[in-house]
Structures are given as C-alpha cells and as structure tokens.
Specification:
alpha/beta; Gyrase A, domain 2; seven-stranded mixed β-sheet; six-stranded mixed β-sheet; 16 helices; 13 strands
Length: about 450
C-alpha cells in the first residue's frame, strides 16, 4: 500500500479514547509529528524510555496547575497505533480529570482529533488497510459474540489476504495480456488464449465466491431482524421480555398497549438476532394506535424472520395470515401461553405441527424458538463459517460487484469478440482499481471520509 498522507496528518491530535463519565481510569491519546514535544510541555518527569509506563505529573503549560498524576507511555514513529510518534496518558476517570488533562495538551499545541482520525492515520501510514480499519469500528460496536468474531477475523487480516489474492489474480491476467500487446505480430501472442481464459474464469470465480458471503456477513454485522407480530394480546410483549430475560415491554390485558416498536439484541446459534416487539396488527380508529400498526407493518417489510404469535388456533392462523401479507420473510408460527393449552385447546383447535409452543410465564420453549429462527436464517442465507472471511458492508459488495462486472466485460470483449488487447485491458485495470479502492491501496479521499465519519473520536 502506498504511504499516502493526508494534509491533516501534519497536525498533532489529542482525544479521550475511553467513554466519558464516571469510571476508575481514562485514556487520552496524543499522536502526530510533534506529539513528544507537546507532551514534554505538560509531563514531568519525562519518561525514561519508549513503551514503558511512567508515573508523571501532568501540568497545564500556561498556569502550571496540576491536572492529574498519570501513567504516561511514549511510542516512537513506526511503533504506535497510528505509525506516528504518540503518547498515551492513563489518568483517573470521571468527567473533570480527563477534561483537565486534555485541555492541557490542547493548550500545549495539539488539536482535538476528528472522529476516526487515529485509525485513519493508521491506514495512511500503512499500519492497516481500509478493510481492517472498518473492522476496528465493527469490533467496538459488536453487541454479540458472532459480531465480535467476524470483526476480529477481519481485523486479523483474513479478508484483506483474500482480497489481495484476488488482486494478484487479476494482475496476472494483465501480465498475460501484456504479451499480446507487446508481440502483436504473433498470431495469438506468445500466451495461448485458453490460458488467459482459464485465468479469467478463476479470478471471476474467486470474486463470486467472496461475494456469496455478503448476505451472511451483512446479517452478522447488522443483526438479523426478527419481528414478533400478531394481533393485540397475543403474548408478543411477554415473549419479548422472556427472550431477553428482563422487563423491557409493558405487558397488560389492554389491547393496543404497545404503541411503538421495541428492539433488543440476543444471540442464537452464531446469529445476532435483533428482536423487535411490535404493536398488535388490527384495524383501529385510534390515531396513535394506528401509527403503531403502521410502524409494525414497516418492520415486517424489512424483517428477516417473523415470529407470528397466537394463543389459540384461530388467533395463530390470523397472525400468520397478517404476517405473510406484509412480508416475504419466513414466518414461524408461535403458540404462546402454552402453559394454558389444556384450558384453551379443543378437539377442533389443535396446535399446528409447524408451530413452536412457548410459555413466557414458565420460560419454556424459548431456546427451541431461537433455534428455529436461526434455522430459518441458515436455510435462506447460509451459515456463518468461522474459517471463511465475510463481506460485512455494502461498500465491500459494491466494489467486488464492480470488479466482477469488469472481468465479465473483459471476457466478452477480448476473448469472445476479439477486441484488441489494448482496448480490452482497460477492463482489467478497472477491476484491479475496484479491489484496490476496497482495501485502501489507492488514495480516495471521499471513501476515507465516509468510512471514518461513523467512528468515535478516540479511535
């Protein structure tokens, strides 16, 4: 990757790297060409060696007031997170102490870091590529083990290595085609066309194989939307609370209690599930309740799995019909209040064989229900594979879709239509560029801006 630098990297930046608020410790980062000089104006005594934590006084450079006593660690250029000279100060936590230390650093010549600027500098200095940088953000945002594992693999370079392999394959095709350009007097060039065709097919297959992981990867990163749906008083909110193990939804016997959607994340069989408790589906004249029903229908339209709830056969059939009218996602019938089955079920009102019986009150059937939801996801989208790197973002999908399209255009132009190599090779160069833009091997400022805009300031 080229060591391209941004104009911003000439500044020395500082920021709080831990969440603000009450806590035992806080970490403040300082990075940039003048990081050691800036820290030297506020830190006494100066640490004796890099990468050794030293207890120091931190004083304001203008007033001399003691801000805190902190553990200070120096990092040399090339050996820090950003690749620049850097300093990390571990201070007491809370609101006032970290703010006072950060204020001293800013007064000494640093400026406040922008969101994601530390990681952006790490990319610009070759410490990681753009795909790994995205994994840093995903790791911070991970709410389940599945999300954490996917982000850790990506940060470890599994996806980057796969993309580099694909890039090398396309570059190999470019090298083969170069002979066609360099030796135009040969009938077929020194390289048989079938060898170029085979290399093109292999590269295209590699891109397609990685693209096939995108549906699973995006679900692992974002979480699969699992909507609890059905008529009012079907037991949705009680089931939602039972699945979470805590009281999040208000549960009453009054129809229409849930007026808005509630969302929470659980994990099942390696899938992060975004459970959504929705308002009861029914016709209503109440304006506020009607808005809640419209919200429910909007969630159903974007669901990956729907849990259609009902405590009797008639209610369950109604719930399944309402759900299927509003979504293309798999619909799982859920027989709620199964602990009351003996009182509710008659000979003509038997539970459907496809339904999952649950009892929120007795907490039975919950694991089976989550396993069923995971099975529906696995059947439709495939299963997360710990050994296979995943495409986890729409940006990844777009770039590789473009690369695949350019390879197909090369195949059609050069191998099928006999377009001159000098013209057809343009498609190979475009395919390489799409992959290089994905990993950040080319300096595309607007791409970097979009990626790091969502990062927290301290990263």
């Amino acid at each position: 990757m080229p060591s391209t630098t941004s104009p911003l990297s000439h500044d020395t930046i500082a920021a709080l790297a831990t969440p603000p608020g009450r806590g035992a410790l806080a970490v403040i980062r300082l990075s940039g060409p003048a990081a050691h000089d800036v820290a030297g104006r506020v830190v006494v005594p100066w640490p004796p060696a890099p990468r050794v934590a030293t207890l120091c006084a931190v004083r304001h450079p203008e007033t001399g007031e003691l801000a805190d006593r902190a553990l200070v660690t120096l990092f040399e250029a090339g050996r820090s997170y950003t690749g620049e000279p850097a300093v990390e100060l571990s201070t007491h936590g809370g609101w006032a102490v970290p703010a006072a230390v950060l204020d001293a650093l800013l007064a000494a010549g640093a400026r406040q870091a922008l969101p994601g600027e530390f990681t952006r500098r790490a990319v610009l200095h070759g410490r990681m590529d753009l795909v790994q940088a995205e994994a840093v953000g995903d790791l911070i945002d991970a709410r389940t083990e599945a999300m954490r594992r996917a982000a850790t693999r990506q940060l470890d370079g599994a996806l980057s290595r796969r993309l580099e392999e694909l890039r090398e394959r396309v570059l190999e095709i470019e090298a083969l085609v170069a002979y066609e350009i360099d030796f135009p007097e040969e009938d077929d060039g020194p390289v048989p066309r079938e060898r170029i065709a085979a290399a093109t097919r292999a590269a295209t297959a590699g891109v397609a194989e990685l693209l096939a992981t995108a549906p699973v990867g995006e679900l692992v990163r974002e979480g699969a939307v699992v909507v609890l749906a059905g008529p009012p008083n079907a037991g949705k909110s009680s089931l939602f609370n039972a699945l979470l193990g805590e009281r999040r939804a208000i549960v009453t016997d009054v129809p229409g209690t849930t007026r808005d959607a509630l969302e929470a994340v659980v994990e099942a069989a390696g899938w992060p599930l975004r459970l959504v408790d929705t308002a009861g589906l029914r016709e209503t004249a109440d304006t506020v309740e009607r808005l809640g029903v419209e919200t429910s229908q909007a969630w159903l339209a974007r669901a990956h799995v729907v849990l259609a709830c009902g405590e009797t056969r008639a209610r369950l059939d109604e719930s399944v019909a309402l759900a299927r009218a509003a979504t293309d996602a798999p619909v799982v019938p859920v027989w709620t209040k199964a602990d009351l089955t003996g009182d509710l079920v008659t000979s003509s009102d038997q539970m459907p064989s496809a339904a999952v019986p649950v009892s929120a009150a007795q907490r039975t059937g919950l694991d089976a229900l989550l396993a069923r939801a995971a099975a529906e996801l696995r059947e439709r989208y495939g299963a997360p594979d710990a050994e296979v790197p995943l495409l986890t973002r729409a940006r990844h999908r777009r770039a590789l879709t473009e690369a695949r399209g350019e390879l197909a255009r090369f195949q059609g132009a050069f191998l099928d239509e006999g377009v001159p190599a000098t013209v057809a090779a343009v498609h190979l160069r475009a395919a390489v560029h799409a992959i290089e833009e994905l990993i950040g091997a080319v300096d595309v400022e607007d791409v970097l801006g979009r990626v790091f805009a969502t990062f927290c300031v301290g990263k």
